[in-house]
């Protein structure tokens, strides 16, 4: 009993010592720039909570005009109100966007393009994780439909506006879980076999592949600035990675 207790104590002591180093390794670089962004227009999906919300807060603090694009407008307005009060930036706006419905995506894009003549940064952040099997309004498996296809369509619809606003950037929030993913072309909608964990991993791999192909077609370089800790995606711990395309 004493031996087991000693081993357990040693194990937790080891974790206490190495945990900060492990977290630092996976966190990647730290942004230390104080560059301001007045006049820049930013769209962030799922910015009513978690990583998206904190990203919106920081970009608003730097003077950008930030659009919070999310499914729950009431939560979006609550987040925007908090960010406006915190940053003293009144240019934090909320627009409805449901990535599980292509009609909503097209309506958002149409409204945005009518409202704004420029778009400098698109951050595809929203996502779902570990959902029971379900399909989007258009019949896509939910992880694939929301995490990848929804953002794919949104980027396509806004791409010309990004091009005319160059230098511009598309940031796709992926995950270290993409290493476990595998695109199952023979069963893209997971109708033959479904695992909520692997479905998430597959969708995150799709994010990375999309980023690389977009960079190739735009003839720019794709970059991955590391991982962030994002517990809000399903109210569970999840490690994220971010891939950016600048042009």
TrEMBL record:
Superkingdom field: Eukaryota
UniProt keyword list: Oxidoreductase, Signal
First and last residue of the signal peptide: 1-19
Keyword Transport: no
rRNA-binding among keywords: no
InterPro entries given in the database record: NAD(P)-bd_dom_sf (IPR036291), SDR_fam (IPR002347)
Gene Ontology MF terms: oxidoreductase activity
Family according to the record: Belongs to the short-chain dehydrogenases/reductases (SDR) family.
Name of the protein: Retinol dehydrogenase 12 isoform X3
